[in-house]
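Hello,

Following up on my earlier ticket. Below are the two sequence lines again, exactly as submitted.
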Amino acid sequence: MGVTTEKTPKKEGVKVKLDTKNPFNKGVSYEAFLKNVTKTVTLDDLFKKADLTTDQIKWVKLEIEQFKKNKK
Amino acid sequence: MAVNYTGGTSNQTELERIQQEIYAESYTIRDGIIDIDQNHKNGADVYESSVSVTVSAATTSGVTATGDINMKVNKTGVPLVSFQYEDTFSEKALKGTRFERSMAAGAFNVDSSEFDQKVLIQVAPAIGEQVEGYIWNGSTAAQKVAIAALAPGAAQGSISAGAQALVAASPSNLFNSLTSTILYNTSNSKVVAGAGLGDYIKVPNIVAVTQTTIAQEYGKMYAVAPSKTINHTSEPPKIYAPLGDRQLIKLANNSIGAASNKNFVIEGFGATEKIYFNGIEICFVPLVGFRILSIPSYLKLLMDLTSDVSTLRVGQMSDGASDRYIKNIQTAATWVVGQKYITLYGG
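Thanks for your patience. The regenerated structure is below:
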């Protein structure tokens, strides 16, 4: 009776994909967050999906406005 | 009999007092509201240490190397910057004015003792006011570039776009203000050692600070501050706020109507007045846009001598010139330690 041995899979560097759709996720820049805005996905859609509070939305909107001004 | 006089008239009296400009006082150095460390000429090494421990079940066997007790020490070199105020001046333009009366006899003598006592004496407070501003507001040109290059974001661990705008609009100075150093520094004691964003706590969801919002905004800063900072009774934290907040606080405290709510405790009057928010003393300094909640000794001003701020050398120019020189030289740098315990409103 043959004995089968299972090879342990090689350990590889685990890459955790950063969820950039919530601007409050650690490590998410405004630049990365804004890449999620498309013709069909608006900022408000992203805020709704991220379940942000009214205060958070108000602040992030101001921040994004400032971010765009700073880039000019 | 008619009186005939030609030659114009001249005033026969004058106000003794020459009204002086108001200069903001240098509270930071005078009252020692942060840690002021002297006797540094060129640079200073700042050390920070921490110990972390891990518990394990007790055994009766010999002690082995577990790595359970980790003692860390970091050193960061902080360069100091020397800067000066200097000029030459002649008082010959004061001939024919009230100041002429205090010039010594002799054509060579055009120095007025009254001018020295009433006008020249203002140079030191004018310098003091400016340096006080530098401690809290402004950055070097290189620091401005570094802060502008950071990737802004909403989460902790990233600079806000609002902070970048405030830094860009702040004056370009010869040394970095405390705010600027909190935002960006080269400390080896940060989570990521070396040049980069500071480890400060930012206050999210902020709005413009006005008479009606000031209490809620201070509340946000208080709420997000590390509880270790708030509970640090051996050296209680302070809030460092813009000078204009004193007015907003009083207007808010004395608002008329049913919604009136005294969120700030005000004790004393004038020079002895103290204002507190949730038991934390507020120090009013020339901050612009930012507010800081910190243990005072975590904010540092390194200098050669603090008295340099008000030391003026005044003397006669050489080679028989009747002009005089005036010069003030200072050496300074700001620094921050225990960065993860510093809360920067607007940061």
